[in-house]
Predict the 3D structure of the following.
Amino acid sequence: MTEQLTPNDNSNPSPAAAVDPKRHVADVVARSGSSFRLGMRVMPRDGRDAMYAIYAFCREVDDVADEPGATEDKLRQLSEWRDEIDRLYEGQPTLPTTQALLGPVRDFALPKAEFMAVIDGMQMDADGPIWGPSFEELMLYCRRVAGAVGMLSIHAFGETRPPAPELAVSLGNALQLTNILRDVHEDAADGRLYLPRELLDKHNVRATEPGALLVDPALASVCADLAEHAKRAFAETEAILPRLDRRRMRPAILMKAVYQRTLAGLEARGWDRLAEPVRISRAEKVWIALRHSFFS
């Protein structure tokens, strides 16, 4: 998924108690430690509030798919989230997060279909675990869990004219593929593998369980090939940006820069050392923010 999210107590929809919706979604973002906070902080308040609510929704739905539990329970909870999105667009949300989304849905015309697409993406995980999907299935997954978030985000940015939707999808692909490459070792330990079947077959990687997969020397070549796909998605994003309002797209520009730095760090570490984490330091993120605030 676009971001590794830590568990919280709000993944299962239930009627809201006496909770301030804006405070709730801001707390979700603050607890997350997410890289996405960097982009959100440079937005005007109304757009930032919208992004906080979008992020909280994505996190809470993501927890349904990622947390331990029976498949039927996860599917039931995702169905409840679909019902809650229906209530949101009827003007009657019942949860703090969807209550926080009520204003942004109205003010930024957030498309309902993209919220539903995020839930569909989480269902792909809940139905899983995913192990070596076809490339077509992988890109569908990216479109749902990352591209849909991008489509919601450009509305919050106030830049929806073409080719902004194209950028939302290309950048979503770039970020999601980078996350997949970053988390190969961790995902495999959880019994999940998002590397596409076509690349596994190309390099004759046939493992169906984590232990064998992670010691296969050909796995490094699979990761290197997928990294080229991620770099092409970043290049597509860069080609589109000059046609859009860079001031409004600054949150996307910052996220692109952070994730490109992450991908470069993964390549520098080497694809044969997947157990060694690569993280961008806070100081590096601050420098990226300053550079793109004053020099772009």
